[in-house]
Amino acid sequence: MTSGRPHVSLIDGLPPRFGAYCCELWEFRQVAVMLIQRDLIVRFRQTFFGLAWLLFKPLMLMLVLFFAFGFLAGFDRNSAAPYPLTIFCGVLPWYLFTNAVPDAMNSLLSQMHIMQKTYFPRAIIPLAVVIVDGIEFFVAWLLFVLGCIWYGYVPGWQVVLFPVLCLQLFLLVASIGLWLSVLNVRFRDVGNLVPFLMTIAFFVTPVGYTLNQIPSEWQLLCSMNPLVGIIEGLRWSLLDGASGFPLVSWALSTIITLLASVLAVRQFLAVERFLVDLA
Amino acid sequence: MNDIVIDASGLGKRYRLSHKTRADSLKLWARNLMRAGLRGTSSADTEDFWALHDVSLQLHRGECLALVGRNGSGKSTLLKILSRVIPPTQGQARVRGRLVSLLEVGTGFHPELTGRENIFLNGAMLGCSRSLISRRFDRIVAFSGIERFLDTPVKHYSSGMYVRLAYAVAAHVEADILLIDEVLAVGDAEFQEKCLQSLQRQLQDGVAMIVVSHSVTRLHRIAKRVAWLRRGQIAEIAEASSNLLQRYLEDDCGVG
Questions:
Q1: Is A243 an 8 Å CB contact of chain B?
Q2: Of residues A11, A37, A274, nearest to B81 (C-beta)
Q3: pLDDT, tens digit, for every residue of A62-75?
Q4: Which residues make beta-bridge pairs with B100?
Q5: In what order do the strands lie in the sheet with B46-60?
Q6: B125, A9: Cβ pair inside 8 Å?
Q7: Which of A119, B97, B141, B246 lies at a C-alpha separation of 20 to 30 Å from A99?
Q8: What phi and psi, each to the nearest 5 degrees, are found at residue B57?
């Protein structure tokens, strides 16, 4: 062989190991970059308002929620921080969750034609989708920044926890997305069920309200939803929460998120090689 | 001297043919699961079908192996296993070096993207780095002959332009092994000739290939050996200069 030490790979139909799989993900990172670029370009091509859509949708949701919970229900009266900012801390993570989970879930099926013709670690497809939605998520925080300027509000030192909470949110979204994406290939029922569950999840997640506005005996049950700890954590981190750090809900969220990620990765690695045969 | 780039032994691919409604919904799945739990397995309702069975072959550096066989004889299944699109049920294969599979022209092409954007996207799908594509960009464009439409979304391309661009990318990848499935039959006669010449050049550079094609005349020009697949098994393997291709052609056209 002329080209130094050639790469030798063994095709034996056995499931990949986690470490080797991660190395392979890195090897094929170019595919992820191209898929992300493609999605970003295609999303805004031939749209008149282009990037403005990223801000418009969460802004409208915030205004509607402000009208419903702040104006009609009067939840804003005992809020220390400007209530629209409180809602943004719920709306923005919710938006990532409600976009990225279904997007990731459908990603493997919609890219099956590529998977049938070439090999790369399949996890790249759902992960790239989550990253694209994640980029939109960060752009949308511009709304929060504008809101802070409008109200003359400056976050305190607690803001250092913001990246940690974002990471936790990504891990949660990616885990659920990975798991649902393989499940959706086998059972298309999932594609019908999940949008419906999303609607329900919206009402049991403190997006337009805060955790301490629900009766205290229900708060623990509500915190079983891993989004609660993240949203309440973000409120504490950015709005200098008067009610102290939401330790219980954040701890629960962390445990559930880590558990979900381990289960999702195990499930994905176990069935990844059969995806084309199953579709 | 070890110049074997693909060493496959005993490769097999089994599919289960179900003779009743497939459990595509959770309800059916749950029902089948309960039944299976009650009486052991439900294998009585399924039949094994070996799309590929006990296939062993070796491919050397700079060699071109042609696969011939009728529809459903397992040619594409073999290429898909070697390109890791589907896993084998049995056996294993050792692959030395960078393998690029051209099971289709223009894998990953997106209609909304321009020709330029698709060159990079498709290049990545074929496992090329961005810098490699950048370096060969001008050659790819020249090969395709669609300079004027480089910044037009490919949804506006004619089908001929589309495959020319797609094949141009494929012809410029850096590979040690190429797996090619029927993708040579694209474009007009002049373009096909160009493709064949580029393949011959790559063979001289030491690239190994497995080519599936129904066009026997074209196989004669590049293939050194021919493997004849019949019902998922290698029926015969011989030099391309032997009369195997001729016999295959007669068998294929005759009653069989």
A1: no
A2: A11
A3: 999 988 888 888 77
A4: B178
A5: A8-11, B90-96, B4-18, B46-60
A6: no
A7: A119
A8: -160, 160
The rounded distance, in Å, linking the Cα atoms of A209 and A142 is 21
Q: How many CB atoms lie within 10 A of CB A74?
A: 9
Q: Do residues A279 and A272 touch, judged by C-beta distance below 8 A?
A: no
Element (H, E) at A148: helix A124-151
C-beta of residue B23 within 8 angstroms of C-beta of residue B29: yes
> How many CB pairs below 8 A link A and B?
114
Instruction: Check CB contact of A12 with chain B, cutoff 8 Å.
Output: yes
Question: Which amino acid, residue A158?
Answer: Q
* CA of B238 vs chain A CAs: smallest distance (Å): 25
Pairwise CB contact (< 8 Å): A42 & B110: yes
Amino acid of residue B206: G
Task: Report d(CA A270, CA A274) in Å as an integer.
Answer: 9
Choose between B56 and B220: higher pLDDT: B56
Among B131, B251, B146, smallest CA distance to A30 is for: B131
Q: Please name the helix (run of DSSP H) or strand (run of DSSP E) that holds residue B54, with its range, or none.
A: strand B46-60
What is the band of B114 on the pLDDT scale with cuts at 50, 70, 90? Answer: very high
CB neighbour class for A16 (10 Å; exposed up to 12, middle 13-18, buried from 19) = middle
Predicted TM-score (pTM) of this structure = 0.87
Residues A257, A262, A263: CA angle, nearest 5 degrees = 95
Q: Identify residue A211 by its one-letter amino acid code.
A: L
Rounded Cα distance between B144 and B123, Å, is 14
Q: Is A118 on the interface with B (CB under 8 A)?
A: yes
